[in-house]
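User: ok so my PI wants both of these folded by tonight, can you help

Assistant: No problem, let's get them done. Here's the first:
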Amino acid sequence: MWRRLGFGLLFGLLAFLAGALASYVLVLRFSSNLHDRSVEAAMTSVFFYGPVAGLIGFVAGTAFGGRKAPPMPETLR
């Protein structure tokens, strides 16, 4: 259980960083806001897209991380 939780936290943190960075670049590139584009990009990245990506990464890391390999059949040993 602790191993899965650790993988979930690791994947969640990495996904948060990747999602925030990607959304920052995308908002800077495609926003029509001319007044405060950099503030919009920073706030949107850190407070919306980063946490959404982090939550998805946490769920994926918890579900798939830390799985143990199935035991090898006797015939292959």
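One down. Here's the second:
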Amino acid sequence: MASSNADPTATPESVGTHRRGWAWITIATVGLLSASAFVAVPAIADSSSNDRVIVCESGIETNGDIEISAATVTRVADGDTTPAPEGCRDG
């Protein structure tokens, strides 16, 4: 007779609630990381260096209950007059 490792007390409702809990943790983590980026960008731009900072942000990607966005910051020499790429801005 084969034994099963499945939790006999798990119901579809408890499994769904568990997944929703992880979704909220993921959303909160992404939110905190995004907030950190928004705080870090001005700090990088206000440093004593004379370099320019270019900020590129993605739109919000949605996958079910999870929303994700990202930002990258690139330091460019102040003498470089190359314009920021489309979708990016000087920070």
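The chain has a mean pLDDT of 75. The CA atoms of residues 22 and 28 lie 10 Å apart. Good luck tonight!
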